[in-house]
Amino acid sequence: MIAELLGIVAPVFLIAALGFVWARMEQPFDTLLVTHLLTNVTTPCLIFSRVAPLKGHVATFGLIAGLAVVSLLVFALLGYLGARLLRLPVTASVGPVMFPNCGNMGLALCLFAFGEVGVGLGIGFFIVMATTQFTLAPWIASGRFSLRQMVRAPVIYASAVSILFLAAGIHVPTWLFNTTKLLGDVSIPMMLITLGVSLARLRVVSLRNSLMVALLRLGIGFATGAGLVWAFGLSGPSAGVILIMCSMPPAVFNYLFAARYSDHAEEVAGTVIIATALSFATMPLLMAYALG
Predict the structure, then answer these.
(1) Cα 96 to Cα 216: distance, rounded to the nearest angstrom
(2) What is the mean pLDDT of residues 13-24?
(3) How many CB atoms lie within 10 A of CB 231?
(4) Which residue ranges form the domains of the chain, and what is each CATH number?
(5) For the segment 149-169, what is each residue's pLDDT rounded down to a tens digit?
(6) What angle do CA 241, 245, 246 make, to 5 degrees?
(7) What's this model's pTM, rounded to 2 decimal places?
(8) Comparing C-alpha atoms, which of 17, 14, 43 is closest to residue 186?
């Protein structure tokens, strides 16, 4: 079991650590360029190449996506109540609790733990979170909803085309599959490196508030994931994917949106750092539970 856990956790930690050390050594890394490539090219290709050929798992994929919607609503409600109870700034708290790091860390863990089926199902969860994050997160941070922001997100169109291929049983041409898979395979390691670079550049300013939100994210996330697994009688990769995705620390994009739209960017940065550090420390326990 220890060797199996090490094979899952170590790659995630080491690749993120590579990005962290790279940034600490002040080596060049164009975060804006990489983020644009991930958002507009490689991640949409990752979605298509993993979802469209996912034959035999249509119902499970739909269930995972549906549970992602349920978990999102639970995160939003409990995040808001927790922020009010602890007297935390709502705009700096709800977003990080609502939107876990399903991309940088979640998909990598699903891949290493459950293989291609795991990452394919994980993308069902990721699609819901990514779509809502690019539409609701700016709204939460700024108080303004932007339809333009929503319709410009490539992940929405990649998701729609992928689901169409999956639901209709359309065969993906070899040239299209190989091209999108080659581009999509770049996404997970590049996401982890970018995560490490981002963590190296962020700072903790308000320790109390950031720690409280970090604990809310991890506590609410795990409890929600475990509750959904129990309530729906999930097992195998489906149960593991739900537990992993729900239990992830806040996505780095929470900080990017806060920096652009609100006055609480430093608090959100601290939340991302603390929650990610706690997540790395507890990841072996989470994976042991998910695999059990």
Answers:
(1) 9
(2) 94
(3) 10
(4) 2-291 (1.20.1530.20)
(5) 666 778 888 888 988 888 888
(6) 115
(7) 0.87
(8) 43
